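Fold this sequence, please.
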Amino acid sequence: MLYLDHAATTPPRPEALAVMRSIGFGNPSGIHGVARKAKDLLEDARERAAGLIGARPGEIVFTGGGTEADNLAVVGSAVAANASVVTSAVEHDAVLESAAFLRRTGHRVEVIGVDRLGRVDPERVAAETAPGPSVVSIMAANNETGVVEPIGDIVEAVKSVSPGAIVHTDAVQIFASEPVDVDTLGVDLLTLAAHKFGGPKGVGLLYVRGGTELEPLIHGGGQEAGLRSGTQNVVGIAGMAAAMEAAAADRERFRADVGEARQRFETRLIDAIEGLEINAPLDGRLIQHSHIRIPGVRNDTVLIRLDREGVAASAGSACQSGAADVSHVLKAMGFAGTRARECLRFSFGWTTTPDDGDAAAAAVLAAIEGLG
């Protein structure tokens, strides 16, 4: 199997698996010894996770994944402040559907467009930000194309027109390959999902800058400082913290191997396929993403052929795979139906070797033979 769909999910890292296998079953809300041990593990994971993004432990809220964290960020902050919302047309569905829910409940929502390479203009975001209570949510890097957005510039532009605005970024895709520091970015809210960098599925976190008000979405026993009730998944949370540490320690090697693999992959395809397009700015995308268009070749046919040969790739977001409609990200970038259905996403990860780039290119060339 040649796995090239790391943007959908990446294999768990050994460090995460080892920690998860070693942890008991205690409920951290109890008062006896078993519960106290679970509580200690939970708070140790919180402290470690916080340190890896430049936050304080009390600013970390553990959730059931990236989607829940995005919902809590966007809906929770907008409801708490009775705020308007500004987001972009290329966001993850977790953000766009949260914004749609808020619109249905009476909040002003502005969804701004992007240029043909999927880039958000900071000044346009600022122009759409209301002077009153506002929530702005722009992703750090796109899950389909890998386009990296200028979050620091967006925060600066937004705060210049609305100092009290709350800025959220979905950083789910970026943590594996880029350092994340909440103060450098300047954001008030930030989302991570464990399974995107080698942790378990069903675990995520939301960074909440001190003083940022949120209305909880899940009510009950008041866990996670009252922002996310329900017994915490200590095993998964410990695995997430271990995966964060492993990913951070491995970034230099990751970038070298993945960068070499992608360079070999794209160079060979560009040389062999007339008119091949890379759907992202070459100097403004994640190193692990290669989103390409092969003119005259339908992506579904290519993916079926690749799968038969043991190669896993995708046409876009895992949350939309199998859907008949064209990706909303590609629509926002100006792709019509036929052109959008000629696009493929190859995403590399921590298990990728440089030679995988050559193998992937050979597989694609074999898969498109006789097509177009």
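The mean pLDDT is 96. The two ends are 26 Å apart (CA to CA).
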